[in-house]
Automatic annotation (TrEMBL):
Highest rank taxon of the organism: Bacteria
Enzyme Commission number, as recorded: 6.1.1.23
Species whose genome carries this gene: Teichococcus oryzae
PROSITE patterns: AA_TRNA_LIGASE_II (PS50862)
Record region (Aspartate): 199-202
Gene that encodes it: aspS
Protein name listed in UniProt: Aspartate--tRNA(Asp/Asn) ligase
Family: Belongs to the class-II aminoacyl-tRNA synthetase family. Type 1 subfamily.
């Protein structure tokens, strides 16, 4: 017989009754029923109930064991009968009558409980993450992640992609976040950077002629934590393709995304390919976001003209000063009590807005402060534009052109939640396309890149030379699911002349481009194919599939919100001798609370 187990703790069934079996695992729960002691023994595969009769030689030893101790038990598999059968467990038709027990390791008193559904502070869970991962939900999330990655690999290979590994130690590159820097011992005063993404390397792989690349790529960014973004590091399905249009990229990745979400979605409805394409301008108008949650059926309407030179002075002044007014419908909300509207007004003020105007289209006619002051024909124009029926209401967001669409989007989301309109049990995908190539920096009033500077402008060099930069669109796209951006991507700018001109419009000289991106630019001078790709985030995909609100719940050993590994004690100070070896001298900021130096 094997030293530790003949079966796993999830393997035994009624057909095994009468056999002698040996199991090893963790003591999950203990229950003393007078003459019988029950231990639920747990391993990676499941749980088996083990029974220790009061008169057995190992009863006292079993009784003294703490939860989460690791033991090996040997005994007879016995079929359970009648009400003792546990239909909730795959092994619930049997139990193991233990004859021999060996303790492999004793557990101390636990800082967090593994059995049960008790909640614990996140920092405590992260400090004892190895215990937290023994809990059923956390264990299930990590196994889901492993299954998703395995499925992605299989599906990408079936689509003709080849997996490559790109460097982890590389050069610093402006990707929009801070790099993590690694000092070079052999080249004092110089630093490697951990890649924010394999962007340049995957493009160079296309220049090298590999045609279809992918990897489950680790990415490193020194940025703040969010619920859907892990500080420090994350993983993405990074892929790139040669000789493709934007639609070719979509056609390659949509079956992968649809297939993975159908495979692991537990029966939830998934948008079938091809996914809807929504232009950026349309998304900002109708949804107030470039990450629209399509489970919410509400659409925003521009009603600026209905308030121009109108009797409602507040909005009339907004429009006269160059602002806009957006209307957000609220189906069936007209009959709600005054408190419903007051509550939304308070919420709007908490969001930094002056308030939230509204009109109620009651059976007896339009009601509310705006309806009283706005001309009847203008009220009717709003009702018609928003396709409102008796019993509906409409809310308004008014203000500056660059701020109001986003606030309208927040109102849309809030109304969807308050009115119970957001469809549950669905994964609604879409592509956001036709992003603007440039935007106006409000502080400097200079033209700047609005998104990815390496995207191919629609219209190529001719568009750069002849169009207003703020009117130029890029072959750039995001894939969005349930209001969460899974990735950005683009058809790349593979022409040195177009790249230099694109950066020139944003205020960079040809020399600037050569100095900052010389490696890739030089490669393009030796023949580069048209190419494009994207990089859906693995962590965000698993977070959606696991129905978790926080990305740390689907990462094996995550950092906390402050970017610390509480379990391993990182980041940590380094001994002076090691710093000297790396030619590094520290210049630390004053400790918090320390007195400022006196001036002389």
């Amino acid at each position: 017989m094997h030293a530790y187990r003949t079966h796993t703790c999830g393997a035994l069934r009624a057909s095994d009754a009468g056999q002698t079996a040996r199991l090893s695992g963790w003591v999950h729960r203990k229950r003393d029923h007078g003459g019988l002691l029950f231990i639920d023994l747990r391993d990676h595969y499941g749980i088996t109930q083990c029974v220790f009769p009061a008169g057995s030689e190992v009863f006292a030893q079993a009784d003294a064991i703490r939860p989460e101790s690791v033991i090996t038990v040997t005994g007879e598999v016995v079929a359970r009968e009648g009400a003792t059968v546990n239909d909730k467990l795959p092994t619930g038709a049997i139990e193991l009558r233990v004859k021999a027990l060996e303790v492999q390791s004793h557990a101390d008193v636990l800082p967090i409980q593994v059995a049960g559904e008790q909640e614990f502070p996140e920092d405590l869970r992260l400090r004892y993450r190895f215990l937290d991962l023994r809990r059923e939900k956390q264990h299930r999330n990590i196994m889901l992640r492993a299954g998703v990655i395995a499925s992605i690999r299989r599906r990408m290979i079936e689509q003709g992609f080849t997996e490559f590994q790109t460097p982890i130690l590389t050069a610093s590159s402006p990707e929009g976040a801070r790099d993590f820097l690694v000092p070079s011992r052999n080249h004092p005063g110089t630093f490697y950077a951990l890649p924010q993404a394999p962007q340049q390397f995957k493009q160079l792989a296309m220049v090298a002629g590999f045609d279809r690349y992918f990897q489950i790529a680790p990415c490193f960014r020194d940025e703040a934590s969010r619920a859907d973004r892990s500080p420090g590091e994350f993983y993405q399905l990074d892929f790139e393709m040669s000789f493709v249009t934007q639609e070719d990229v979509f056609a390659a990745i949509e079956p992968v995304m649809e297939g993975v979400f159908n495979e692991f979605g537990n029966g939830r409805k998934v948008t079938p390919a091809p996914f809807p394409r929504i232009a950026y301008d349309t998304a900002m108008l109708e949804y107030g976001s470039d990450k629209p949650d399509l489970r919410n059926p509400l659409k925003i309407t521009d009603v600026t003209e209905a308030f121009r030179d109108s009797g409602f002075g507040l909005f009339s002044k907004v429009v006269a000063s160059g602002g806009i007014v957006r209307a957000i419908p609220a189906p069936g909300a007209a009959g709600n009590p005054r408190g419903f509207f007051d509550k939304l007004n308070e919420w709007a003020r908490a969001e930094g807005a002056g308030g939230l105007g509204y009109i109620q289209f009651a059976a007896e006619g339009p009601k509310g402060p705006i309806a009283k002051n706005l001309e009847a024909e203008r009220v009717e124009a709003i009702r018609s534009a928003c396709n409102l029926q008796p019993g509906d209401a409409v809310f308004f967001a008014a203000g500056k052109k660059d701020e109001t669409p986003k606030f309208a989007g927040k109102v849309r989301t809030k109304l969807g939640e308050e009115l119970g309109l957001i469809e549950q049990g669905e994964f609604r995908f879409c592509w956001i396309v036709d992003f603007p190539m440039y935007e106006l920096n409000e502080e400097t009033k200079q033209v700047d890149f609005s998104h990815n500077p390496f995207s191919m402008p629609q219209g190529g060099l001719e568009a750069l030379n002849s169009m207003d930069p703020l009117e130029i669109k890029a072959f750039q796209y995001d894939i969005v699911c349930n209001g969460i951006e899974l990735s950005s991507g683009a058809i790349r700018n593979h022409r040195p002349d177009i790249m230099i001109r694109a950066f020139e419009i944003a205020g960079y000289t040809a020399q600037d481009v050569e100095e900052r991106f010389g490696g890739m630019l030089n490669a393009f001078r030796y023949g580069a194919p048209p190419h494009g790709g994207s990089a859906p985030g693995i962590d965000r995909m698993v977070m959606l599939l696991a129905d978790e609100p926080n990305i740390r719940e689907v990462i094996l050993f995550p950092l906390n919100q402050q970017g610390q590994d509480l379990m391993m004690g990182a980041p940590a100070a380094v001994e002076p001798a090691r710093l000297k070896e790396l030619s590094i001298r520290l210049d630390l900021p004053p400790a918090k609370g320390a007195a400022a130096p006196k001036s002389s």
